[in-house]
Specification:
Blueprint: H1 9-13, E1 17-20, E2 25-31, E3 35-38, E4 41-55, E5 60-72, E6 75-77, E7 80-88, E8 93-95, E9 98-100, E10 102-105, E11 110-112, E12 115-117, E13 142-143
Parallel strand pairs: 1-3, 2-4, 3-4, 4-5, 5-6, 5-7, 6-8, 7-9, 7-10, 8-11, 9-12
Antiparallel strand pairs: 11-13
């Protein structure tokens, strides 16, 4: 007879991560309470407040994103609103507005949109909603920045 397995504090504190593979094409509303990695194509809305979203190098996302943290190696078209940090790596491309406490745009990355930096006093348990309009402000222009 098999003995029951015991869970340690380490296992209980591990964060779940969902992986959306390269061959998947998904449209719709995605909500959840775990970290998410997208390597395929997604169109719609993503809401994983309190967790992170990673867009892999082959990932293509057309969506508004709300999360604790977003890391971009692929492409995102849509507004991003996070409580902590947005990181756009050199292979990343973002067209949309960013609202975050911290933003990192690696040299060679592409970004077109507006940036709003949240201050400590503005932080709240809930992330402010991303602007609903997918249209970018006329004043937005492409920029290349260094970290």
């Amino acid at each position: 007879m098999a003995e029951p397995t015991k869970t340690s504090g380490v296992i209980a504190s591990e964060v779940s991560r969902t992986q959306m593979g390269r061959s998947l094409v998904v449209k719709g509303e995605l909500t959840g309470s775990e970290d998410l990695t997208i390597s395929g194509q997604f169109e719609g809305t993503i809401d994983v407040q309190g967790h992170s979203v990673t867009i892999g190098p082959e990932g293509k996302v057309k969506a508004g994103i709300q999360a604790a943290r977003v890391v971009i190696y692929g492409s995102v078209q849509g507004n991003i609103s996070v409580r902590e940090r947005v990181e756009i790596h050199k292979t990343g491309q973002v067209v949309g507005d960013l609202v975050a406490a911290g933003i990192s745009i690696e040299d060679g990355a592409y970004f077109k949109g507006k940036i709003e930096i949240l201050r400590e006093a503005e932080h709240s348990p809930e992330i402010p909603p991303a602007p609903k309009s997918p249209q970018l402000a006329a004043a937005a222009s492409p920029s290349h920045a260094t970290s």
